[in-house]
UniProtKB/TrEMBL annotation:
Annotated spans, Disordered: 138-165, 173-192
Entry keyword annotation includes Membrane: yes
Record field: compositional bias (Basic and acidic residues): 141-151
Keywords: Membrane, Phosphoprotein, Transmembrane, Transmembrane helix
UniProt keyword Lipoprotein present: no
Domain (Response regulatory): residue spans on this chain: 6-120
Pfam families given in the database record: Response_reg (PF00072)
Biased composition (Polar residues): 155-164
Organism (species): Pirellula staleyi (strain ATCC 27377 / DSM 6068 / ICPB 4128) (Pirella staleyi)
Gene Ontology process terms (BP): phosphorelay signal transduction system
Transmembrane spans: 79-104
SMART domains xrefs: REC (SM00448)
Name listed for the protein in its UniProt record: Response regulator receiver protein
Length: 304
């Protein structure tokens, strides 16, 4: 079974959706157009949509509202905002609601859009394989529990150990999948940072400072789990008091106490990556890169 990767373009401008569909077809992508965002949830479910090109300024329903609705739906979907009016506030809101890329209308090459779609399709395949692996482990755990329940005298401790080992195997599989990203799949922001370093317009020390600031501004797994109602305040306080410092330690604690499943941990990690502020924005704010290198004002795409 493959992860569905159909592309849906949501924009009230009929002529523009036709243009995008025509240009993307020449690049090997079949794009389904939707000019009324009010029924997007039905289309996403019935057509097994994996990637969505989304306008923001639409008369019936704003794109940010659509983003928020998509985030609440089960499954893994990727969103590329494709809009002609994007302010700094809009960028921050879209990032918080789960957008993966931001493209400025009429200021990008369609090959860039094709590259972004290809990158997101690769990420979705990795997520899908991880979800399948977790589902297999869960089925095996259920079968093992049923077998042991039917055999009196079995050691219940061994049963618990088997389930816990399967859980950690699923997490390890997910980590391996994340680390096996194909070459050339770096985000446009990453490529831009490497280019700035190569041109000696950015030092590694300044980049390190920006990364530390990004870490401070990114919510922890514990905070995200609490905000989503996965944890009670008492559980969150207990883990915080235990002094778990790293995200990996927090994830292990959530799993070992059976407060979150491996799938939920992956969802939290994905949301955490989306909420991480763009390094280019931080570097520009710190004055570490020239204003002519500012992504928000001089490039056509911003990766989130």
């Amino acid at each position: 079974m493959q992860a569905p990767n159909h592309v849906l373009h949501v924009d009230d401008d009929v002529s523009y959706t036709r243009l995008v569909a025509r240009r993307m077809k020449t690049l090997g992508y079949s794009v389904i157009s939707l000019n009324d965002p009010r029924g997007i949830e039905t289309h996403v479910t019935s057509l097994q949509i994996g990637i969505i090109l989304l306008d923001l300024d639409m008369p019936w329903r704003h794109g940010l509202e659509v983003l928020e609705s998509l985030r609440k739906m089960p499954g893994d979907r990727r969103v590329i905002v494709l809009s002609g009016c994007i302010s700094v506030g809009t960028v921050i809101n879209a990032m918080a609601l789960g957008a993966d890329y931001l493209f400025f209308k009429d200021r990008f090459d369609f090959s860039e859009l094709a590259d972004a779609i290809a990158s997101l399709q690769s990420r979705r395949r990795q997520w899908f394989r991880g979800a399948q692996q977790t589902a297999r482990h869960q089925r095996l755990n259920r079968l093992e529990r049923d077998r042991r329940a039917a055999e009196p005298g079995e050691n219940t401790l061994s049963e618990s150990s088997t389930g816990e080992q399967a859980m950690w195997d699923a997490v390890a599989s997910h980590d391996d999948t994340k680390s096996a990203a194909p070459k050339g799949s770096r985000s446009p922001e990453s490529r831009q940072i490497q280019e700035l370093i190569r041109k000696r317009m950015l030092t590694k020390a300044a980049l390190g400072r920006a990364e530390r600031i990004a870490d401070q501004l990114t919510p922890t797994l514990l905070q995200l789990a609490l905000s989503r109602g996965m944890l009670t305040p008492e559980d969150a306080i207990r883990i915080a008091i235990a002094g778990k410092k790293t995200e990996a330690a927090i994830a292990r604690e959530l799993l070992s106490q059976k407060l979150c499943t491996a799938t939920e941990i992956r969802q939290l990690e994905h949301q955490q990556s989306l909420l991480r502020p763009p390094l280019i924005t931080i570097l520009s704010t710190l004055g570490e890169i020239p204003k002519t290198e500012n992504t928000a004002s001089n490039t056509s795409v911003l990766a989130i």
